[in-house]
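Progress note, project year one: complex with zinc ion.
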Amino acid sequence: MGLDRSLIADVRSLSEPELRRLVILAQDLLEQRGAGRVPEGAKVTYRREEVRCGKANCTRCPHGPYWYAYWREDGKLRSRYLGSARAGRSPGEAAPTADGVEP
Ligand SMILES: [Zn+2]
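Model obtained:
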């Protein structure tokens, strides 16, 4: 089952705050299903990244920066969105060294 076209159209029409809420909702659902969980003992790399939303007429791209956690699981690279990296916010107790990008 794929994403319904009308659902995609609905998502595209959302405002920025609504999109953020949707991201949080989707993240929660993924976590409930066991995805995006950093396994114990995994070597996690934190990166701050800017994200392009893909809208042709967006004047605010790139968005962010946001924190992402990266780790390897069964040989595959996994990532998890951790939230805004603005104003030097750290992604958690394991404060990373910012890789090149200063606030
Ligand atoms: Zn954008």
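The pocket of zinc ion is lined by residues 53, 55, 58, 60-61, 63 (CB under 6 Å).
Strands lie at 45-51, 63-73, 76-84.
No further modelling is planned for this target in the current period.
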